[in-house]
Amino acid sequence: MNYFKLTWKNITRRKSRFFFTLSAIAVGIASLVTLLSLGSGLETEIRKQADVLGANLVVTPRGWCAYEQISVLTGETLPEAIPNADVEKIAALEGLTAFPYLTQRTALKNQPVPLIGILPTAMKQFKNWQIDQGRYVLDKANVVVGSGIAKQFELASGDLLRVRGQEFSISGILQEVGNRDDLAIYMDFATAQKLYAVGDKVSFIAVKVDDITRIDHYILQIQEVANVEVSSDKQLLKSVLAIVGSVGSALKLVAAVAILAAFFGIVNTMMTAIYERRREIGILQAIGAKKRTIFSLFLCESACYGLLGGIVGVVVGFVFSWFAAPYIGQNEFTAFLGSEQSVQLFNAGITLKALVFSVLVSALAGVYPARQACKLSPVEAISYE
Amino acid sequence: MNNPIIRTEKLTKVYDSGYRTVALQQVDLQIPKGSLSCIMGPSGHGKSTLLHLIGGLDRPSSGKVFLDDVELTAVTADRLTEIRARKLGFVFQFFNLLPVLTALENVQVAMMLAGISKREQEERAAELLKLVGLEDKLRARPNQLSGGQRQRVAIARALANDPEILLMDEPSGNLDSRSEAELLEQIGKVNAQGKTVVIVTHSEKVAEMAQQIIYIRDGQLVLGKEIKEQLTMGERV
């Protein structure tokens, strides 16, 4: 006989109570794990997309809000607001290369697909794209397609696409790069401007600098020649992560409420257990259990609920987030969660955090009942009927 | 009288939870080492209270309890628990065993609390259950045992840490006559091993075994003529 065995036999003596108490904590932890997992997937994906952008500076119109900043990273449709003249002025500055983006949207088989207007040669070099099928030709009649879109819509080089009533030939399919570049159609910049009737405007400009140590100097230079906002890639990432973080915090509050409900569930279960087992507590005291032993026994029972509920919650949470990610990803704000590697089926960090949290919360829930148990005098407990 | 192992001096217990009840009053008592003593008297007159006080399960309102010259009424709660674990064994009338544990595990629990290794626990618990004639019931749960068998498991548990004193509160109160006879046989064996046994009982059969009978009425020891009228044998206090 050991303390663990005694604890286990006590918590499992009433199977239905054990099951429901365990379920309460498991639901709380599962919701926390789901949110942590999705949040961590979102953050990982945002960082990845920031890397994919490959720019040191991002030039956007003044006054863009957080959603538009996120859209720079996600490749969502953006309003066109920077004139070509400003693009040319920025491109003319020494020590940097400018890559304008016109992010629009078209439809394939009635499903929305990003369409991005680019400078073909410059962008191919900047992104180091390789061609998987066909050739890399972007002009008035030809577009290239990312590998993900080609696979999803079963497109091949030579196929025809209709964009805004105009027919384009797919000159080539890009090699898979494993990021959102796979999920767009690329069109010659000027053709896209004309087709979407946006005049001479672009959505934003990605800038690559020659000397990373002089980043502040380049920001000043750009702002001297054009009335635009310039963020470094790090600033942009930080601001996007802050927005995502604040949304995540609000969601974690919801999980906290679920865990709080489980906390009171455990308190109730333990108080009931103590009420039912008063005589047993008295017998244990009579045969040599000290007050701190009684306290520890009940605290262990409570923590055990946390450990077991935590394990169940972690498993359910990860499985749920794995299956939920594609559906949540249908929201534009969290669009990139739909990509395959954004949510992990197992994350050691989240598992450890969730289990420690679950055990601590459950142990805390057991403190008051355990104190009540050890305060019983042996005679009071034995005499209880 | 032999050297007393248990001694009380002016032991008084008053319960005062809105209504004042004097459960024990000025009780001076000596229980010889190795004896089998019975505490008798009408229900609600302080027998169990006296047993709880000499077993260190409760604190008196005034007076002292000595166990082998250690004043139980002066030691800390933890020390008292240690003394209970090592020197005293308890058997109660009802709900004596932990229902989720087997007979073997119920005996082991007492040893676990005293810090004895699992292997030693198992060996000794099996020996003790054999001693009380339950070697074929090691894995039985309390609800699979008869009342008499449960009390024998309780005796085995009370003996787990080889205590000097066995305190029993109405151990046969809930048993049929056959089970009571079996229980008395076990108690006799334990006493024959040199252990001091103190039993609170209403049973004349139990009283017949006693070398000393302590009679309590209205929280006080009954002496002299009055007790002679009520009891027929044994050393009277």
Strand elements of chain B, count: 11
Mean pLDDT of chain A: 84
Largest interface: A-B, 24 and 36 residues
**Cα separation of the termini of chain A:** 28 Å
Q: What general outline of chain B do the C-alpha atoms trace?
A: globular
Report the strand count of chain A: 12
State mean pLDDT of chain B (0 to 100 scale).
86
What's the helix-strand series of chain A?
A: HHEHEHEEHEEHEEEHEEHEHHHHH
The count of helical stretches of chain A stands at: 13
Shape of chain A: elongated
Helix content of chain B: 25-40%
For this entry, give a set of tags.
heterodimer, A: 385 residues, alpha+beta, 10-stranded mixed beta sheet, two-stranded antiparallel ribbon, 12 strands, B: 237 residues, alpha/beta, 7-stranded mixed beta sheet, 4-stranded antiparallel beta sheet, 8 helices, 35% helix, globular, disordered C terminus
Would you give an account of this structure?
The complex is a heterodimer of chains A (385) and B (237). By secondary structure, chain A is an alpha+beta fold. Chain A is 58% helix and 17% strand. Chain A has 13 helices and twelve strands. In chain A, β3 (96-108) and β4 form a beta hairpin. The radius of gyration of chain A is 30 Å and the shape is elongated. The model of chain A is unreliable at 331-341 (pLDDT under 50). By secondary structure, chain B is α/β, with parallel strands linked by helices. Helices cover 35% and strands 27% of the residues of chain B. Chain B has helices spanning 47-54, 77-87, 103-113, 118-131, 147-158, 177-192, 204-209, 225-230, and strands at 4-16, 20-32, 36-40, 62-67, 70-71, 88-91, 165-169, 196-200, 212-217, 220-221, 235-236. In chain B, strands 3, 6, 7, 8, 9, 10 and 11 form a seven-stranded mixed beta sheet that branches. A four-stranded antiparallel beta sheet of chain B has the order 2-1-4-5, with helices on one face. In chain B, α3 (103-113) crosses α4 and α4 (118-131) packs across α5. The A-B interface holds A 1-3, 5-6, 9-10, 13, 279-280, 283-291, 293, 377-379, 382 and B 52, 55, 57-58, 77-78, 81-82, 84-86, 89-90, 92, 94-101, 105, 108-114, 118, 121, 157-158, 160-161.
